[in-house]
Amino acid sequence: MHFNEYLRSCRENNDLTQEQLVHDLYSYDIDSFEGLDTSTLSKWERNITKPKVSRQVNIIKYFQKQTGAALPCWDQYSIEETENLICKAGMHNLIGKRKQLIYNFPSKMMHIDDLKVYPVRNADRMDTLINLNMDLHETTNHAFTQISHDQFQEWALHPSNLFLVCEYKDGYVGLFFSLRLKPEVFDKLLNFEMKKSEITIDDFASFDERGCSFLLSFYALNHKAATMLFVRFYAHLIANQKRIDDIGGVTILDEAKKLVSNMNLHYYKNMITDDNVEIESYRESLSNVLASENVVRMILSKQECPEE
Prior knowledge:
With 308 residues, the protein is α+β, with helices and mostly antiparallel strands.
C-alpha cells in the first residue's frame, strides 16, 4: 500500500475533512506537525509529496488514539491480502544478518514466488518438522527454556498457536513458532516466574479472547526463507490485531536480541541461571510494534520497494 492511500482512507473512515485532520494532528503533536496546512496534506494524499517516516509513524499513532486499533484502517484485509501489501525487501532489511538463526544455504536459484509458507499442522511430514524444530531448539537454548517433544507436538496442533514452515520444492527451508498465551501467563514467563515447560493447554488464549504472542523459535536456511516466514507472521499480527495485546520472548542469543530490537521489542527483565548464563526477556505492545519506522517502511512504501 502507498502512504497516500492509507492516509486518505483513514481520514475518510474517521469522517474527517482535511481541515479537521490538520487541526487534530497539530493538537496531537505540535512538534511533529507544526506548520502543517491543508495544501500540504492534500499533496500527501495525492502522492505529490510525502512526509518523513517519523511523521508517518506519528500519523499512525494519532489514528491509534482515535480508533483504539493497533494498525488502524487495515482490519478489512485478510492474511493473504496483507502479505501482498508488505514490501519483502523492507522485511529483509528488518531481519538483517543473523548467522545463528539464518544459515547460508545458496538462494540465487530460489525465487520468492517458489517459496511456500503454511502452518505445520497442514504438512504431510509434521513429525519430521517437529523433530527438526526440537533439535534446533535444544542446540540454541538454555536448559531453563527447554521443552519436551510431546509439548512441541501438542502446541503445534493447537489452533491458537502459529507454527509455520517454509517449503521450497518439497524441501523445508525454514520454521517459525509463536504461542498465543493468556496475558497473565505471558507476564509470568517474561518475569521468569514460570518456565516454558510449565505451560499447559489451559494457558493458551482461546479464539474469542485477547492474548499475547510469545516468540518461541525461528530458523531459516537463507534470508529469502526468513523473509517469507516473517512476512506471514506480520500479516498474522495485523489480521488478528483485535485479539493480540503484546509480543515478547526470552533468549540468550545476541542475534535474537538484535532481531527483536529491530521489531521494536524492548528489553524487559533478565535472570542469571545457576551456571551463570544470562537470559533476557523482551516485550512490547502490538500497537508500538506496528507503529514503528521499520514497519512503516514495509507496509506504506510499496512504490519504493525494489521487488516491485
